[in-house]
Amino acid sequence: MNLPPTLFINAGGQSRRMGRPKALLSTPQGTPLIRLVAKRLRPLVADTLVIANDPAICATVADGSTLCMADAFPDSGPLGGLATALAQVGGWLICIGCDMPLLNPDLFAWLLGWTDEVDAHGAPRWDAIVPHTQGRPQPLHALYHPRCLPAVLAQLEAGRRRMDSFFADVRVLRIDEADIRGIDPNLDSFANVNTEEEWRAILARIP
Prior knowledge:
The chain has a single domain, classed as Alpha-Beta Complex (Spore Coat Polysaccharide Biosynthesis Protein SpsA, Chain A), CATH 3.90.550.10. The protein has 7 helices and 8 strands. It has helices at 33-41, 55-61, 77-86, 105-112, 149-157, 177-181, 196-203; strands at residues 6-10, 47-51, 66-69, 93-97, 128-133, 136-137, 141-144, 172-175.
């Protein structure tokens, strides 16, 4: 049986298209978006790790079960944030972006069910569990184990920043869209916001 996972919220981006920090957007409940995101998945995790370079974001999430720290690989995009997070934990990470207000905890609970799989020799079978929708991986809505860290670091050292750049070097379980739709029919979990227009459109859908 695996240890309870850690929730990793990647909030290190500069929100250039939004023009203000996405993590701090005010939700209909009157709380910052990042706190809403954390609350959705908190029942599934032991603790929460936020990677953010903005002190205001860290101040917003500070509590006894949340650690907020700066990205150890600045200007490396979310891959640098993932490397920073993987170096802090001993078990699985639930990795999400800070701008996904319609996350479905039931979907992540189902994904976590795959983390106990072992091969014929009793060794862990997977290093990453990654949903695919619309023909593309969703690396900011996925599970990663620290076994991925050497491959992630190798990509960063080579100057590569794509979040999926290390997938060929680890054991990835691909979760197909048809299976995801059985739990999240409209794929709402993967909706994120990058602009003011997208934020206005999604506000009415936040429960």
